[in-house]
Design brief:
Blueprint (H helix, E strand, L loop, with lengths): L6 E3 L3 H12 L4 E3 L6 E5 L3 H11 L8 E3 L4 H6 E2 L3 H10 L4 E7 L13 E5 L4 H10 L3 E2 L14 H8 L5 E3 L10 E4 L6 E4 L5 H8 L4 E2 H4 L21 E6 L1 H17 L4 E3 H8 L6 H17 L4 E5 L7 H11 L2 E5 L1
Parallel strand pairs: 1-9, 2-9, 4-7, 6-10, 11-12, 13-15, 13-16, 14-15
Antiparallel strand pairs: 2-3, 3-8, 4-8, 5-6, 6-7, 10-11
The structure holds threonylcarbamoyladenylate and magnesium ion.
């Protein structure tokens, strides 16, 4: 099925059935999950998977996450599943946790870009679950954006990036707004490859032992997760991130804002901008939910520069900082 026209579907039963048929026939459907919108295709169909890479302009060595709807599917699409995976799945699925496991022969190698591992996740969004059930196949889905741009949290974001490249988009919303935690369970100790909706403390509490973070085990030159070596989540406007001690950070930020404004440059202070978008007092969860939308909106304002200030790395703060560091064209570390 070739995508020339992109249909916007509702989230009613009949629309989900239509979306599932598109997936069964080898087409692409963008659908909401609790994290971000996914660009879904039949994970067992090489042709359909190929279309995902093409539509996104995704590097061929960056593997996809396979979405399932029940625990029984874990054993079908992964092999030698360790006990820890079941423990975590019982606790956090359906939800924002992707587990990297050994890939079974029931999935083609293109799904994981030739790796012998595969990332598997059971999303909690009801529309996503219903879509996977009705499609009757596991659904491979990266975030439904053009490679490198901010992830989509609304159908409009998907439309802006992928019109004519995806057969249908299910119109709904995402509650978390940031991608899942990716946890590698294929080495002797679990390693977080990407922080997300489930924190290291939550994982350690369930497992009862230490979980590593990729920064603790990674030499810069050998990314464990292929996606880590690419620039990500980036608005078109240059983004400068200021980190370090709060007091100094604020002073540097205010000086920079003044400096650019007196030179006639339009500068957007991201934290304040998100505060203005939020109708309720800002906290880390609301920041996460609105961040990608704010980065896209900032681009529409045609500013010269986005200035972002570090957040405390509690709860979703860690995942937010991970995304901002990757999105930044420059990081200013103050003492
Ligand atoms: O929340 C999410 O995870 C969303 C929704 C749609 O589920 N999906 C998502 O997919 O963020 P994507 O493709 O944008 O990011 C997947 C990340 C990439 O950094 C990729 O390199 C990594 O997971 N990944 C996937 N399979 C892997 C594997 N077998 N080994 C190591 N890393 C893997
Ligand atoms: Mg992505």
């Amino acid at each position: 099925m070739r995508a020339k026209k992109t249909t916007i579907l509702g989230s009613d039963k009949a629309s989900i059935t239509r979306a599932a048929t598109i997936i069964k026939e080898g087409g692409l459907v963008a659908f909401p999950t609790e994290t971000v919108f996914g660009l879904g295709a039949d994970a067992t169909n090489k042709n359909a998977l190929n279309k995902i890479f093409k539509a996104k302009g995704r590097p061929r060595d960056n593997p996809l996450i396979v979405h399932i709807h029940c625990l029984e599917q874990l054993n079908i699409f992964a092999r030698n599943v360790p006990e820890e995976a079941y423990k975590l799945a019982h606790h956090f699925w359906p939800g924002p946790l992707s587990l990297v496991l050994q890939r079974s022969e029931n999935l083609p190698d293109i799904v994981s870009a030739g790796l012998d591992t595969v990332a598997i996740r059971m999303p909690s969004n009801e529309i996503a679950l219903d879509l996977i059930i009705q499609a009757g196949v596991p659904v491979a889905a990266p975030s439904a954006n053009l490679s490198g741009s901010p992830s989509p949290t609304t159908a409009m974001h998907v439309l802006a990036d992928l019109t004519g490249k995806v057969n249908a988009i299910i119109n709904s919303s995402c509650t978390i707004g940031l991608e899942s935690t990716v946890l590698d369970l294929t080495s002797c100790q679990p390693v977080i490859l990407r922080p997300g909706g489930v924190s290291i403390y939550q994982l350690e509490a369930v497992l009862g032992f230490k979980v590593l973070q990729v920064k603790e085990v990674l030499a810069e030159t050998t990314p464990m997760s292929p996606g880590m070596k690419y620039r990500h989540y980036s608005p078109k406007t240059p983004l400068v991130l200021i980190t370090g001690r709060k007091y100094t950070r604020k002073t540097v930020l205010n000086n920079l804002l003044k400096h650019y404004r007196t030179r006639g440059l339009k500068t957007i202070h991201l934290n304040k901008f998100i505060g203005n978008l939020s109708r309720t007092p800002l906290n880390v969860d609301i920041f996460a939910r609105l961040m990608y939308d704010a980065l896209r909106k900032a681009d529409h304002l045609s500013g010269d520069l986005i200035l972002a200030e570090q957040l405390d790395e509690n709860g979703l703060g860690e995942a937010i900082m991970n995304r901002l560091r990757k999105a930044a064209t420059r990081i200013i570390r103050v003492k």
